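dude i think i finally got it to work??
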Amino acid sequence: MSEKHLNEDMLQQFALEPASCPPNVIAHLMECPECFLEATGYHQLGQALKEQPAPEFGFDLAAAVMGQLETGQGAAAPMEEVAELRPEVGGMGAPTGAAVLETPKGVVVTVREPRRISRVIVPVVIAIVAALPAWLFRRTAYFVFADVSEAIAWIILAAAGIAVVFTVYKYYRRYQQVLHLIN
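look at this
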């Protein structure tokens, strides 16, 4: 018996089509109980999947996929195609705090609103992560910058200010793009 076991591809090939396997793979499976056990597991999994009923969709899946391919690979449908936006409040539909988009073709998409708690927690965590080291190392930071000339300190502050302004502008532009897509 060889010390090297068969790879997953060979085991799956044996489980699906044993007749198409090379003779050395079949010989190894007859000698190696570990590989034979794994191949048997793949075979049983394949049989169980074949016995499962075919899924039924409440819409034309082929039309939905083809529509996605026509608009660009994986791209969302244009907002003009969205016929209705209705909030769901618990029940059998979408989870609470979600909205359902229904296109004229009958495709229903659930959209969750961001949780309000995350709107509060994220800024607080960012403030703590930024403020805690500043507070703990305030005296050390003073001595680090004590020998820096005033001109260099202003250059550092100006560079940091410019970085903040560009970051805020980037997020503002992203916000405008999202609003434009919604409208």
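The chain has three domains: 8-51, 74-112, 116-182.
im so relieved honestly
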